[in-house]
Amino acid sequence: MDFTHHLIRWYDEHKRDLPWRRTHDPYLIWISEIILQQTRIDQGLPYYERFVALFPDVETLATAEEREVLKAWQGLGYYSRACNLHKAAVEVVNRYGGVFPSLLEDIRSLPGIGAYTAAAIGSIAFHLPVPVIDGNVLRFLARYFGVETPVDVAVGKKRIADYATASIDLSDPGTFNQAVMEFGAMVCTPLNPACGTCIFRDQCRALSTGSVLRLPVKSKTVTQRIRHFNYLVITTKGEKSVIMKRREQGDIWKGLYDFPLIESSGPLDIKKLQKEPEWLQLPFSGREVMIGSPRLYRHVLTHQVIMARFFRVSVKSFGELPEKFLVVKRPDQLPVPRLVEKYITRWTNEPDF
DNA sequence: AATACGTGGCA
DNA sequence: TTGCCAAGTAT
Predict the structure, then answer these.
(1) In DSSP terms, which residues pair with A264 in a beta bridge?
(2) Which nucleotide has the shortest C1'-to-CA distance from A38?
């Protein structure tokens, strides 16, 4: 097919030199694909380098502690990726004797690996003839073939998948898949696509109808909710340790650590905070003292905006803390959300702020 | 099918 | 400052 060959030629000439493109080791391909889920290469690359240096093979990853894996993931977001990566490594060792599976269904069955990642690993590491469908592919093919069906519903995805299946280079499916994605990332970009110099400018359906920026069509809208996190940064007078707590399942930042937290529907000041019943559940044995005025951080996420206030509290002693709380001397050594990391950094540099 | 899950870059 | 979005998966 003409389209296929032009695309592959373009890829050979213009592809970026990336570490996971210099190997066929399924383990390394796998790590890169998980890191790059919903994540730009610029953002993921340093994490890939560190992660692979820390956990060079599936055996090392499988025997590591989940907390270590989360620490390596800190700041990358979507932390369930790290937990699933760890779980899957254990599974590869126990169920496949440490050899990464090469059947598409086996790859797909590992935690954290869905349709896209299975196809990516399968085609790149094992030459399986399956097309990848990711954001780049949806955008590029929707524009090139002029697909008006919303791509965020099954019918639209199917149409794109059919075009991809018809176009894939069976002699080297992995290279074809990477070429489509690279083209979507470098040329057929969301905002400023390089249509003027695009090698497909004479055949692109969207360009000929002036609908490049309108495609791909998406039908869903994201709603945001606003949450107020009132953090209690509790220390004993003169002590350097602080109370922290592991975040539980069913909410953001699962598995990461932050401070005792009172969530409220609106902003909370110190007086209101002290009336909160949760406040009393922390069994201080001395009289607690608020230090300074609370620091406010605004953290914008895809589905929610978090207004975080950090209240510094000094107590005589911690007393008998429930087990779920942790007394920590070096909060920077635990995996924490970016928001909390920023606070801790500032706090460490200027203890009095 | 619809929703939740992070963060940073860009205009 | 605000809104949009990026190599998706699990539930």
Answers:
(1) A228
(2) C6
Do A187 and A304 reside in the same domain of the chain?
no
The tally of domains found in chain A comes to 2
Which one is catalytic: A13, A33, A49, A341?
A: A33
Taking residues A133-154, what's their average pLDDT? 92
Residue nearest C5, CA–C1′ metric: A190
* Sequence-ordered strand ranges (E) for chain A: 225-236, 242-246, 257-258, 261-264, 289-300, 304-315, 325-328
Span of A4-8, A116-120, A209-213, A296-300 with lowest mean pLDDT: A296-300
- Please report the pLDDT score of residue A307 as a whole number: 85
- Kindly report, residue by residue over A25-64, the tens digit of the pLDDT: 999 999 999 999 999 999 999 999 999 999 999 999 999 9
For residue A33, indicate whether it is catalytic: yes
Of A278, A264, A272, the C-alpha closest to A322 is A278
Same domain, A196 and A235: no
CATH of the domain at A81: 1.10.340.30
Does residue A294 belong to any structural domain of this protein?
yes
> A340: Cβ under 7 Å from strand C?
no
Interatomic separation, CA of residue A289 and C1' of nucleotide C9, rounded (Å): 44
Strand C: which nucleotides have any atom within 7 A of a protein Cβ? 2-10
For residues A30 and A81, state if they share a domain. Answer: yes
Whole-angstrom CA distances from A42 to A45, A46, A85, A145, A174 are 6, 8, 21, 29, 22
- CB of A122 lies under 7 Å from some atom of strand C: no
CATH number at residue A297: 3.90.79.10
* Judgement on whether residues A178 and A68 belong to the same structural domain of the protein: yes
Task: Tell me which range, A102-106, A198-202, A276-280, is most confidently predicted by mean pLDDT.
Answer: A102-106
| Mean pLDDT computed over every residue of chain A | 90
- Shared domain check, A336 and A250: yes
Q: How far is CA A10 from CA A16, A145, A204, in A?
A: 12, 19, 16
